[in-house]
Amino acid sequence: MSKLGIFGGTFNPIHLGHLRAAEEVREKFNLDKIIFVPSANPPIKDKELADAKHRYKMVRLATFKNRSFAISDIEYKKKNKSYSVNTLKELHRVYPDTTFYFILGIDAFIDMPNWWHPDKLVKLTDFIVISRPSFKFADLASSPYLDADRNALKRLDSGKIESHKTRLRSGRDIIMLRLTPLEISATLIRKRVRQGKSIKYLLPEEVESYIISNKLYKEQ
Ligand code: ATP
Ligand code: MG
């Protein structure tokens, strides 16, 4: 039975925060691969969001050298917004006999009630929720999907424990994991590009060059 991590995002652009997180999760849980799933273009154009084609290519540039990393075009090739529930169902069909771990940052897990049918998603997969600077595991206490052990969340936040595994109300597993904190966000990178500032060492060189040669994230 193989074990795959599914790491979705807009990746606008992909950066070292994402890549290091994927590497640490893969190593910690001995996953066979991490599959990056860049999102499709939303139906209403967001001017800060680079075209799905560019975001997909940047994820490919950032991941092709790592044999444990793969990229999926499941969402990218859709003309419209794609939903995690459908992505998971499709992945189950493509990879039978596989345990999936849906990887997401604390911020994304907190946002899940606003997604399309999160009630279905929590039944479809196990979760790995990763730390991210400026967000606390303690904030998961208000999540409708789990009965949190507040003490364990506190111990995670303070670094007394590195990981904590528990059950979601759906019966699926959720594992919370502390990572090397990297305070990098795509928002910060886009802002620096707009301001004409350096983005070196925040993301892979190939992605930096791609952004420059395709003039992404410049003020229109
Ligand atoms: P934006 O600022 O545009 O929202 P982002 O940096 O948050 O971009 P996303 O594509 O939104 O990147 O995030 C994809 C996933 O990666 C989310 O689950 C998010 O929580 C996680 N993530 C992003 N950056 C980090 C980081 N520095 N450390 C840990 N997790 C991260
Ligand atoms: Mg984000």
What labels describe this entry?
single chain; 220 residues; alpha/beta; Rossmann fold; seven-stranded mixed β-sheet; 18% strand; globular; binds adenosine-5'-triphosphate; binds magnesium ion
Word description of this protein:
- With 220 residues, the chain is of the alpha/beta class.
- It has a single domain (2-182), classed as Rossmann fold (3-Layer(aba) Sandwich).
- Helices cover 35% and strands 18% of the residues.
- A seven-stranded mixed sheet has the order 3-2-1-4-5-7-6, with helices on both faces.
- A hairpin with a 5-residue loop joins strand 6 (163-167) and strand 7.
- The N and C termini lie far apart (49 Å).
- 37% of the residues are buried.
- The model has no long low-confidence stretch (mean pLDDT 96).
- It binds adenosine-5'-triphosphate and magnesium ion.
- Residues 9-12, 17-18, 21, 104-105, 107-108, 130, 132, 182, 184-187 line the site of adenosine-5'-triphosphate.
